[in-house]
Amino acid sequence: MSGFRAYFDFTKDNADGLISLSADESRHLCGSLRARKGDAVDAFDLSGNIYSCTIEHPDTKSALLKIIQRVCPAKRQTQIWLLQCLPKGKTFDEIIRQCVELGAAGVIPILSRFSQVKIPPQEVEKKRQKWLAQVIEAVKQSSNFDGFELPGAQTFEQAIAETSDFDLKIAASLEPDAKNISSVFKELKCPPKKVAVLIGPEGDMSADEYGLARNCGFAPVTLGKNVLKSNTAAVSTLSQVIAALDFIS
Q1: Is 147 helix (H, G, I), strand (E, B) or coil?
Q2: 10: closest CA among 150, 145, 151, 152?
């Protein structure tokens, strides 16, 4: 992979093997990073498409890249999704960045009972687009080109109902019967294909939400004796899941 990276929506036309970057991407590549004509660039989208390119026309408003070849890196064997009950402030932005860096396949933002964040229905897509900008920047930093999905914020019930095709579901829990993540993985006969990781907001999930998660197959897991903040809990759980997957693969 080259040193320069740029986002491009490959559902758009790229006539004659040329792609025209957006104003923001052009300004970042040719302005902030000072890339020049002939420099190599990896152009990517959030669906896992990557192309090796060179800069055909450097411009801070509309840079042109020439596609050289498609890149096909090895794909992740297990998709890990974070179901994150929305925390307050900019904490979720940090969680998004960390998820991309760790190699998660996506994040589902949840409006749970104790979430302090409230998003009106008409603002859901606008908020999602803002979060997608965080994803793109994190991909550039981490070179995690495997693809990343980020749907709009959903209710707790909607998010849990859409996990029927996951073959392992765990929820970070303060409940007394929560197991260690390592013990959950030791019970598996083969590595899972899709893992759902549920993390509560400040104030934790409600008893009803814990009950719904259990009824939908989420196993409660402990992260230790200390109570962690949402972003710390997310990183800790994802890291432990990744380590456990490496051990059983």
Answers
A1: coil
A2: 145
For residue 88, the model assigns a pLDDT of: 87
Q: What is the pLDDT of residues 65-92, one digit of tens each?
A: 999 999 987 778 899 999 999 998 889 9
Q: In one letter, which amino acid is 224?
A: G
What global pTM score does this model have?
A: 0.91
Structure token digits, residue 80: 């890990």
Domain 4-71 belongs in CATH node 3.30.1490.10:
no
Q: What ranges do the domains of the chain cover?
A: 4-71, 79-248
Q: Whole-angstrom Cα distance, residue 63 to residue 55?
A: 8
State the pLDDT at residue 75: 79
Angle at CA 119, nearest 5°, toward 86 and 128? 75
**Which of these ranges, 8-22, 108-122, 186-200, has the smallest mean pLDDT?**
8-22
Angle in degrees, 0-180, between the axes of helices 230-248 and 91-102, rounded to the nearest 10:
10
Burial of 42 (0-12, 13-18, 19+ CB in 10 A): buried
Q: What is the largest CA-CA distance in the chain?
A: 61
Residues near 241 by beta carbon (within 8 Å), at least 6 away in sequence: 80, 170, 181, 195, 197
Least Cα distance to 224 among 188, 187, 174 occurs for 174
pLDDT in tens, 183-210: 999 888 888 999 999 999 988 899 999 9
Place of tokens 């759980």: 237
Question: Could you tell me the fold of the domain covering 79-248?
Answer: Alpha/beta knot (3.40.1280)
